[in-house]
Amino acid sequence: MNEIKNKDRRDFLAKAAVAGVAIGAGTNLFGAANKPNIACKGWAAFDESGELKPWKFERRAVGDDDILIEVMAASICHSDIHTELGHWGKQIYPQVPGHEIVGLVREVGKNVKNFKIGDRAGVGCMVDNTDIATAGLEEQYSKNTIFTYGYPYPKEPTGISQGGYSDYFVVNSHFAIHIPNELSWDEAAPLMCAGITTYSPIMKYMKKGDNVAIIGIGGLGHLGIKIAIAKGAKVTAFTTTKSKIKDIESWGAKAVLVKSSDDLAPFRAKFDFALSTIPYEFEMEPYIAMVKPFGSFTLVGMPINFSQKTQTLNLASTKVNLNASLIGGMKETAEMAEFCAKAGVRPNIVKITGEQINQAWRDVVAKRARYRFVIDPKSF
């Protein structure tokens, strides 16, 4: 796994170097002919300090397959923090983070059939693919997919994809979904990453009536609880934060406060499925042991350097299917949004301004978020 990640990182840096040459030459290699770039305001990281600052920049002009979105809400994911701190590899700056984006369609390219001006649109972790015909239904696994920020992207004036902490956003229409009218902007934004990231493995590994463990109750975990319950599971949530117990119980789950691995012993082989959203390395063995033989334990929290440790003997003795999940394809993302709208699944959010982003990041790291910060782009 580390060998693969290192290769991916080398490939990224090589592509970034090419993009850097293009920027230095003042060239927008694939810009839409005779159309001006889109002037934007946003909040960007300029280094690995974790401090964001206001930034005026340009996005590419709307191409034939693109839509222009006026961003109405963008929410904060722990991935934003990991990325800009360099936890997942060196970055190119300035870089606008954010891959939970919703807003109104203000312009459509001439080839776009699935959106019209005035539609409600949402964008998650992907924005384009250089060979869309081969991307399939699980676009996140295509080698040609462009992710929402920090990815080498010669179409963009900055040479990399720029994320959603911004007032406007340009995306290939294939990588946008329609936002159901039942969802407010603030409710819809966190679904674009946190929603699909938890929904996808729940749909794959869980069935109605299962005993399910959700481990780590933050932005992802709290939606994991709500989605699993809405799908008919009996949910037990594991948290190290005492102040979250009442919230967990109010959502219909049993809450367990974890102070040490001893607190997990009574749950050995009790669960059909476990979903871990913990975004840092942790002692996995006591949690894995809570899953029944041949049940599944899925990791969706991605730690520093994407590295987790476990003992092979533990897996052999428990016979648990240990796996990790990324996000979900666009078809499944649209399905998730419709399900949440109809089933009443809503994130718990705190609305903030651009000036409050840096404090919100600190609160996320300190486990003080309750449970997703949603940024108002009108404050930029």
CATH superfamily of the largest domain: Medium-chain alcohol dehydrogenases, catalytic domain
What's the CATH architecture of the largest domain? Alpha-Beta Complex
Alpha-carbon distance between the two ends: 40 Å
Given helix and strand content, the structural type is alpha/beta
* Percentage of β-strand residues: 25-35%
Largest sheet: 7 strands, mixed
Q: Topology as H/E string?
A: HEEEHEEEEEEHHEHEHEEHEHEHEHE
What radius of gyration results from the CA coordinates?
Answer: 20 Å
| Number of E-state strands | 17
Pfam families: ADH_N, ADH_zinc_N
Organism: Campylobacter lanienae NCTC 13004
Domain Enoyl reductase (ER): 50-375
Cofactor: Zn(2+)
Task: Please tell me about this protein's structure.
The structure is a single chain. The protein has 380 residues and is an alpha/beta fold. The chain folds into 2 domains: 38-192 and 347-379, Alpha-Beta Complex (Quinone Oxidoreductase, Chain A, domain 1), CATH 3.90.180; 195-324, NAD(P)-binding Rossmann-like Domain (Rossmann fold). It contains 10 helices and 17 strands. The strands form 4 sheets. Strands 3, 4, 5, 8, 9, 16 and 17 form a 7-stranded mixed sheet that branches. Strands 12-11-10-13-14-15 form a 6-stranded parallel sheet. A two-stranded antiparallel sheet has the order 1-2. A hairpin with a 6-residue loop joins strand 1 (38-45) and strand 2 (52-59). Helix 4 packs across helix 5 (219-230) and helix 4 packs across helix 9. The radius of gyration is 20 Å and the shape is globular. Mean pLDDT is 92; it is low at 1-30.
